[in-house]
Amino acid sequence: MIRIIAIIALLAGSLAHADWTLVNDQSRVNFVTTKAGNFAEAHYFRELSGKVREGIAHVTIALVSVDTAIDIRNERMREFLFRTDLFPTAEVTTPVDVTGYEKLKPGEQMDTRAVLTVSLNGQTQNIPMELVVSRLADNRMLVASRKPAIVNASQFQLASGVEKLRELAGLPSISQSVPVTFLLTFARD
Amino acid sequence: MVTRAPGTGILDFLNEIDTAAEYLTETLDNREVPAFAFALRNTIEAHGGLRAVLNRAEVDDETRDRLLSGEPILALADLVPVLQGLGLKITIKPTTE
Predict the structure, then answer these.
(1) φ, ψ for residue A36 (rounded to 5)?
(2) Model confidence over A11-37: pLDDT tens digits?
(3) A79 Cβ contact partners less than 8 Å away, ≥ 6 residues apart
(4) Smallest CA–CA separation between A6 and chain B, in Å?
(5) Residue in A34, A42, A147 closest to B35 by CB
(6) 0.85 surpassed by complex ipTM
(7) Is residue B66 within 8 Å of residue B36, measured between CB atoms?
(8) Candidate from B5, B30, B39 with C-beta closest to A176
(9) In A147-171, which positions are buried (b, 16+ CB within 10 angstroms) versus exposed (e)?
(10) Do A36 and B34 touch (CB under 8 A)?
(11) Which of A47, A106, A116, A162 could form a disulfide with A62 if both were Cys (CB 3.0 to 4.6 A apart)?
(12) How crowded is residue A40: how many other Cβ atoms within 10 Å of its Cβ?
């Protein structure tokens, strides 16, 4: 009897906290660079993966998939900025109030805050974010940044990489201050 | 020279004044004066343009006319009222914070 109750409790727990999986083709992580003081350009990563499991969201960004719309720039970012041979991914984790989000009905959304723990280039930093969580459908959830995180390249020891890119491109400056936004779609397993 | 990419939404984050403040502060912290000037121009544009910003600021006619003639905002005496018109201000604090 105790075993049956335990199994029911486990099942109930798993239903209350269903796993959610990131849908790559409906998700984006964007960042903006400013060069020469007069040009702002938006870039993104093509390959994301992730999971929300047991109250923790974990998203992996494949840094090799950086897309700046210019091949040579993609290659330079991979080699000199992100050093993808050493650090092929960025990892983002944060606690998630799954129960609260699952109370949303399709079409409803809520504002929330989260502290993202970001590991990039061998450095780990906590980044506070304002988020909007939207229930797209019973089995679809959209998590978006309400405003960008202003990330300083030096936070992740990327300043020398930015400087290398500046040298290679022959630019007078590339800003170390990088606004980062994201839009992540999760599907319930 | 590109001062803003129309319709691309790349710099839409500057529409929110608290985000613009954060970005402008970050560029100054990094001593990125060109990026600061670029972001300031775009923030002004996102908030109605320089004329509207100056109208909201306590600025004398001479300064208003001079800045509206296209003179760059280089002097602190010009920057302070422009920021005021945006609802921003400069704060000085120790770097050890």
Answers:
(1) 55, 20
(2) 444 445 689 999 999 999 999 999 987
(3) A85
(4) 49
(5) A34
(6) no
(7) no
(8) B30
(9) bbbbbbbebbebeebbbebbeeeee
(10) yes
(11) A47
(12) 22
* B11: its two tokens: 């710099």
Q: Does position A5 have pLDDT exceeding 70, yes or no? A: no
Query: Tell me, what amino acid is at B70?
Result: G
- What tens digit of pLDDT does each residue of A97-147 get? 999 999 999 999 999 999 999 999 999 999 999 999 999 999 999 999 999
Contact A175 B30 (CB under 8 A): yes
- Residue B77 amino acid letter: A
The three-state secondary structure class of A11 is: helix
Q: How far is B7 from chain A (nearest CA, A)?
A: 13
Assess whether pLDDT exceeds 60 at residue A63.
Answer: yes
Distance from CA of A56 to the nearest CA of B (A): 27
Closest CA in chain A for residue B9? A42
Tell me the CA distances in angstroms from B26 to A121, A150, A169, B94, one per residue in order: 21, 8, 23, 15
Q: Please, are residues A23 and A141 in contact by the beta-carbon 8 Å criterion? A: no
Distance between CA atoms of residues B77 and B79, nearest Å: 6
**Interface probe, candidates A152, A177, A181, chain B, greatest B C-beta count within 10 A:** A177
Six token digits for residue A4 = 């049956």
Phi, psi dihedral angles at A182 (to 5 degrees):
-150, 160
Q: Do A38 and B39 touch (CB under 8 A)?
A: no
**Residue B82 to residues A4, A144, B73, Cα–Cα distance (Å):** 70, 32, 8
B-interface mutation test, from A150, A151, A171, most B Cβ less than 10 A away: A150
Q: How far apart are CA B97 and CA B94, in angstroms?
A: 6
Place of tokens 């998203």: A59
